[in-house]
Amino acid sequence: MILNKIGNIIKQNKSFAVVSHIIPDGDAIGSTLGLYNFLSEIGKDVDVFNPDKLPSKFNFLPGFFDVKDTLVKRHYDCIFVLDCSDKDRLGHLVELLNMADVVINIDHHISNDLFADINYVDTNAGAVGEIIYNLIRINGFEISYNTAMCLYTSIVTDTGGFKYSNTTSMTLNIAGDLINTGIDFPEINRILFDTLTAQQVKLLSRVTSTLELYNNNSIAMLHVTKDMLEECGANENDASEMVNYARDIDTVEVGVFIKEVEKGKFRVSLRSKNKIDVRIIAEKFNGGGHIRAAGCTVYGDFDEVKNKVLNEIINHWK
Amino acid sequence: MILNKIGNIIKQNKSFAVVSHIIPDGDAIGSTLGLYNFLSEIGKDVDVFNPDKLPSKFNFLPGFFDVKDTLVKRHYDCIFVLDCSDKDRLGHLVELLNMADVVINIDHHISNDLFADINYVDTNAGAVGEIIYNLIRINGFEISYNTAMCLYTSIVTDTGGFKYSNTTSMTLNIAGDLINTGIDFPEINRILFDTLTAQQVKLLSRVTSTLELYNNNSIAMLHVTKDMLEECGANENDASEMVNYARDIDTVEVGVFIKEVEKGKFRVSLRSKNKIDVRIIAEKFNGGGHIRAAGCTVYGDFDEVKNKVLNEIINHWK
To answer: Whole-angstrom Cα distance, residue B84 to residue A172?
Structure first.
């Protein structure tokens, strides 16, 4: 089986690189650092890379400060590419693929184009961290405390705290084994899910004060302007999840969040619960996404944009 | 072993009552409804009780509308009391204990005073739902879809979505087995953790607008007045978790939430992260609680109350 073949490559070789995708998320960071810690602990010569700067939120993870974003020309016996559906996801680090004897691609995206010498794509895995766990265990190795911190982070972020439908009994069993190493998972969860800046709290107050309900309270709208961001000392990313406060209202089917990008240009995020396909609405404005989460850019002054989007949702409802 | 003994009592008897504690939480409701569904499905004559009206949030659970809050005099072969450390927790339903041949007490609180004929207290269980799962499985029965919905709810609420330190590998393994019944756990999580009313969103906006930071940004204060509640059409319970927005700020060690109870009387909630024992501060005002979560009632006008609490925290810090 492929994980045993990969295990043999690990056992028989000395120098490794581990890399994941641009704009790295918790799974990209947790799975690469998990594999990096494991390989280091069993005495391998390992470099770990990411094309982008990692979000500082993850700086509690062992190995965080070892991650490099630039290449020095050298040779590796083997390179692991994690959580990347294709090589373009490596950004400027794509050159790494020419620096090793063997390239191993480990992923869980169905869209993976199998670009490497050895490809292991398990679409049932909630996170690549689950696959790294299996790779280590199946080949007879132990999971250390440090590796467990990283793999737990990978899994808990990509499954939304075990809430998303990609969570399986395997996910939960693996998480159980990882917490048995003694990691402080309540603190990890606090850092990952329950940490705000004072600016974010101020922005939350301003954004939630804009709440408007339409269509018999089934559509909720929130918005943020550039002035509001500035007043709160916040940046655009601080508003990124606030559409949830619209969608989460009990009577609401569609939550809308309108963000001013520049004068006359607005980014619109759409979320739905059970019925409305918001992708179709986003596509009317040349946007896209999924059934329950989509987005588009709409031009005009704020009231115009709001009414255009609102009318499109109500028309689609009929 | 006791769970087998209890299993034999189930197998050999016909009529059962299941009850849990006043002001029921997710574990009380989920574990009683889990056991109720299981006993009904295997053909027993079962009544399910709670001394209080259940929060409507849980009305998606099978059996929710069967829960009674009043007694009709009759006889049961056996009564199960779940998640109750003592019989006072049964409120006006304590009389049930005299209506059966056998009273079985199943709990996970270390403070349980073993009031019943058969007592099974497992302080390692994250939720009583875990114990009910084991009771069913150990005695050779299957877990149905309906029972799984209830037990999953019990476990996921009492472990804070598997984030609290009472989560064990056993908790996660059981949750994995429960989701294998095909329950819609993403929807259950949405209902339990990601549902707000429009009034709560409005109140959140008002409360977070009161943010004040002290002691080099290590103390955050939020407050709510009766007027604010009224303006938002909200009630006291709508503000119950908002202290978290103070504690969760990255620079903060102590989060404080001050709620006006009546003119000149304020309820103060205190939360800390790693260092400060907030119980000691609460005790200065004749309150109490735990190291990381405590509360007290303080008298005076708002500014007085705020300054008294603030001074106490800063004094304790030194």
So the answer is: 28
What mean pLDDT, rounded, does chain B reach?
A: 96
Does B310 contact chain A (CB < 8 Å)?
no
Q: Supply φ then ψ for residue A54, to 5 degrees.
A: -75, 145
Per-residue pLDDT reduced to its tens digit, B157-195: 999 999 999 999 999 999 999 999 999 999 999 999 999
Judge whether A116 and A101 are in contact, CB under 8 Å: no
Q: Do B162 and A161 touch (CB under 8 A)?
A: yes
- Quick one: closest CA in A to B214, which residue? A198
Q: B231: which chain A residues are within 8 Å (Cβ-Cβ)?
A: none
Q: To 10 degrees, what angle do helices B169-179 and B145-158 make?
A: 150
Q: Contact A201/B208, CB-based, under 8 Å?
A: yes
Tally of CB atoms within 10 A around A100: 20
Q: Which amino acid is at B80?
A: F
Q: How many CB atoms lie within 10 A of CB A24?
A: 22
Does A197 contact B167 at a Cβ distance shorter than 8 Å?
no
Contacts of A195 in chain B (CB under 8 A): 248-250
- Model pLDDT for residues A182-206, shown as the tens digit of each residue: 999 999 999 999 999 999 999 999 9
Give the closest residue to A253 by CA, choosing from A211, A215, A202, A200: A215
Q: Which residues of A touch B220 (CB under 8 A)?
A: 198
- How long is chain A? 318
User: What are B7-13's contacts with CB under 8 Å, separation 24+?
Assistant: B7/B135, B7/B138, B7/B139, B7/B140, B9/B78, B9/B102, B9/B104, B9/B118, B10/B39, B10/B42, B10/B44, B10/B78, B10/B139, B11/B139, B13/B44, B13/B77, B13/B78
For residue A214, the chain B residue with the least C-alpha distance is B198
Q: Is B181 helix (H, G, I), strand (E, B) or coil?
A: coil
Considering only CA atoms, which of B58, B48, B63, B47 is closest in space to residue B25? B58
